[in-house]
Amino acid sequence: MAASPVRGFALRALLWLPLAFVLWLAWAPLWVLPAMHLAKLALLGFWGGLFENLTLGGELLDAAGRVVARSSYFVTVTTHVQVTVAASGGHAGGVGVLEPTLNPMVYAWSLPLFAGLAMATPITAGRRALQFLVAFALIWLTQAFGICAESLKVLAYQSGSEGAAAIAAAGLSPAAIGIAYQFAVLILPAVIPVLLWVAFNRAFIEQLVGREREPQAHAEGHSEAGPPTSPT
Q1: How far apart are CA 223 and CA 215, in angstroms?
Q2: CA–CA separation, 137 vs 68, rounded Å?
Q3: How far apart are CA 186 and CA 57, in angstroms?
Q4: pLDDT tens, residue by residue, 49-66
Q5: What is the rounded CA–CA span in Å between residue 85 and residue 20?
Q6: Cβ-proximal residues to 209 (8 Å cutoff; 6+ apart), any chain
Q7: Are β-strands 94-97 and 67-79 bridged in parallel, bridged antiparallel, or unpaired?
Q8: Could you tell me which of 103, 26, 96 has the C-alpha nearest to residue 59?
């Protein structure tokens, strides 16, 4: 009995997906860098009055200003929005600019998801390389969209009256920013890699579906024919 192609694909995907996620985490700054530069072009190009710079690496702080996490794949966003910091915990207050730190990995896991599916698909090395080239470029664009949406969301909702005033002065809608952020975090990372894989490998998918239907159709044909009748 021949091995099922669906089972073979599932086993290969089961092997490749964990490896893809391990490599994604191990080299996280490398995967974040292209998206960060794209987001920087967009934020400084469209909203240069709000944002000054984006840099790789940073620290996440809690409400009291304590460092809760630091990583080389975080993105630090330097803004032009000035805020007044009250004195607390022995630290003198003052006036400074907002510099929120983002974790772009929360909307970047579409990269290893597509990589695992592509590696599990039986295609030529050249075709696979072309798929990676196109898919990664599109996924980095969606990740850059996420960085932009979160940067604006931090100003609109998490930076007090100064951030909200800056968003209003720029003519932006906080509701639209919130929707864009939810779309970037909840929808795009799960949908984009699957859509790309299906679009690139329609012939393979049709082959899988056709092979799975053949035994069923063959069995139904035998059952409809019924047993032969004996001559009278």
Answers
A1: 12
A2: 32
A3: 24
A4: 999 999 999 877 766 567
A5: 43
A6: none
A7: unpaired
A8: 103
- Spatial contact of 36 and 104, defined as CB atoms under 8 Å apart: yes
Q: Give residue for tokens 């409400």.
A: 63
**CB of 43 within 8 A of CB of 51?**
yes
pLDDT at 130: 97
CB 102 within 8 A of CB 179: no
The pLDDT value recorded for residue 208 is 80
**Token match 């089961």: residue?**
14
In angstroms, rounded to a whole number, what is the distance separating the alpha carbons of residues 110 and 143?
9
Mean pLDDT, residues 22-50 taken together:
95
Mean pLDDT comparison of 62-66, 85-89, 222-226, highest-scoring range: 62-66
Tokens found for residue 208: 């899988």
Total-model pTM:
0.83
Q: Show the tokens assigned to 192.
A: 């984009």
Pure H helices in the chain: 5-26, 28-46, 110-120, 125-157, 160-169, 174-182, 188-200, 202-225
| pLDDT of 93 | 61
CA distance 52 to 191: 32
Q: What are phi and psi of 102, to 5 degrees?
A: -110, 155
Taking the alpha carbons at both ends of the chain, their separation in whole angstroms is 39
| Beta-carbon contacts of residue 43 (< 8 Å; ≥ 6 apart) | 50, 51, 54, 77, 148, 151
Torsion on CA atoms 37, 40, 41, 44, rounded to nearest 10: -160
Ramachandran assignment for 226, one of left (phi > 0), alpha (psi -120 to 50 degrees), beta (any other): left
Short-list 116, 118, 121, CA closest to 15:
116
